[in-house]
Amino acid sequence: MLLVSILLPLVSGVLINLIRLRSKRFLMGATLSITVLTSVLCWICILGGVEKTQHLIRFAPNLELLLSLDGLGKFFTGLVATLWPLTVLYALSYMEKKQHLRMFFGFFTLSYSATLGISMAGNLFTMYCFYELLTLSTVPLIIHPMTKEAIRATRKYLLYSIGGAAFAFAAMMFLITHNASGPFAMGGVLTQFPYGKPEITRLFWLFGFLGFGVKAAIFPVYKWLPDASVAPTPVTALLHAVAVVKAGAFAVIRLTYYCFGANMLSGSWAQTTAVLLTAFTIVFGSTFALKETNFKRRLAYSTVANMSYILFGAVLLTPSGLEAGLMHMAAHSCIKILAFFAAGAVLHMTGRQSIYELDGIGKRMPVTFACYTLAALALTGIPPFSGFVSKWYLLTGAAQTGGIAYIGAAAILISALLTAIYMLTIVRRAWFPDHNADLSGLPEVEEADWKMLAPMLIFALGTLLCGIFSQPILDAAGEIAHGLI
């Protein structure tokens, strides 16, 4: 069943690209049906009743393609399987009048397969293979508009991804050559320091952290993410919410806790370096979001900051830190996809991209900006929304760790203030424009159709419920962090 869940969107994506379908409606309907069926299969795997480990191909004694679904894999798979169908529904309306639909939906479906491959990988080699497939399948999505900006953004994305893959490959080969390439295991598969030299081991972990951290947009390898916002909104929503950036954070967690092991890294210079990088990225991303005047790019810089919230929790190397990081992974996914959907609805219906063009638009698109307002409050960390819960646990985890972690806690508090400013100023403009604002074009503005509004409303409800009823998510994250599932 694990293999079927990955092969269905993989084969379907290839066929969509190869077969010319005359009916645009059939193409869209088939894409949605395949996505929904894949998500159903994923949830069957998550809830049990199927084989949880599948051996695929053994290339060498230390090199095997292996699928498995442990607690962490279930967490990420559930996140992906829930978000993807709603994004496809949104895309049906957003992309209806765009060109190259066959290429778009084909590679969109391939990206789903690659992301599931990462979440269901049973060892580092398998995860790395699907990680590279994700890069290849998302390149055509970023370049889709075929503008000069899209081409430049794609080149940058490829350059950063290839560089990151090289660093991650070095970490993987270090583990493979020291017989630590077996199935993922909480606590790590590396049982001792090779050569009796801890610093070499920690250096290669840092290589892997930075390599996989490229997709998580950690400083200084973040620049590709804001530039990639030129892609169609369904793409940027998934890039920023789950498919790429969350895959990067997920890979860092796998490498840290399930390959090298937290005990081998705790208290080292490598951990200190990682904590300082995440803390700096949190403040850096929030500061640049505040300066940005393009709606989607502002949200992109916000993602740069928030991804390092997750990485910060992970590199605390404690169960409480990992639990908080996983909670923020779930919370941020729902919040950020909601914010991007709102920005995309504005762009789709009005063509407006600048924040200065949003004066008074909330009165013409009330549902869209009610959803955006909720996302802004949640991302700021205001109770009872999910963003408050995840940030609270991140601060609690930092306080329990102490030492260098206090720098990260301070960064989160500074970022919370900056987030309130850069998110809520848009809310203020949309609902309460200045008295001298130009509102002449507003009578022509109207809401998007139901295929765009329905996913926004569902994610808005999810953001609220995940805050009020956060305990089940926290319980699952806690069991994963303590190695119980």
Please give a structural write-up.
The model has no long low-confidence stretch (mean pLDDT 92). The longest helix is centred in the C-terminal third of the chain and has 32 residues, at 319-350. This protein has 485 residues and is an all-alpha fold. The chain has a domain at 282-485. The chain is 71% helix and 3% strand. The chain is globular, with a radius of gyration of 21 Å.
Strand and helix layout:
Layout: H1 2-18, H2 24-47, E1 53-60, E2 63-68, H3 71-94, H4 101-120, H5 124-142, H6 148-177, H7 198-213, H8 224-227, H9 233-241, H10 245-260, H11 269-291, H12 295-315, H13 319-350, H14 366-380, H15 386-401, H16 405-431, H17 450-468, H18 471-481
Antiparallel strand pairs: 1-2
Helix pairs in contact: 1-2, 1-4, 2-3, 2-4, 3-4, 3-9, 3-13, 3-17, 4-5, 5-6, 6-7, 7-10, 7-11, 9-13, 10-12, 11-12, 11-16, 12-13, 12-16, 13-14, 13-15, 13-17, 13-18, 14-16, 14-17, 15-16, 15-17
